[in-house]
Amino acid sequence: MGRKADRKAGSGSSSQEWVFCVSCEVWVDLECTPFETVEEARAAPAFTCRQCEKIDTVKAEMAALVKQQADDSKLLIANLEARFEREINAYRSECEALRVTLQKEREDKEGSTTECEALRQALQQEEKLREILRDEIAALRLAFEEMTACRPAAAPSGTAEAPRGDGTASHEDGAANASSSGGTVKAAGEPEKTPPTHRGGTGNVRTKPKTRAKRRPGTNCAQAQTAKSDVVRGGHEETSLQGREEQDLAGPKDQVTPGAALKRHLEKLGASAQQDRRAFVYGDGNAARLKRAALKAVGWNKRVMFRVKEGASLQELCSSVDLAEDIWQTPAAIVVLHAGSLEMSDGSSAPESSASQLRALLTKWLQKAQGHRFVVYALTERGSGSETHINPCREWNVAVRKMCEELGPRVEFVGASWRLGHGQQGPSYRDDTADQLGQRLGRRLCAFLGLRMPTRHWGPPSQSHPAAGTLMTALGQAIIQMAEGQHPHENGRRRSQGGPHRVEAIRLTAPLQRDTRKRVRESVSAVETERWRESGRAKRALTLYWEAKTDIAKEALYDNSRGSGLLCEARSGVLRTRSLRARYTAELDTMCPLCQGAEETIRHIVLECTGLRPAIHDAQDSGTSAQGATGATNDSSALARALGFRGSGEPPSWEAVEATKRRLECWWRKQVEQTRAPRR
Question: Keywords, A to Z (predicted)?
Answer without folding.
Answer: Coiled coil
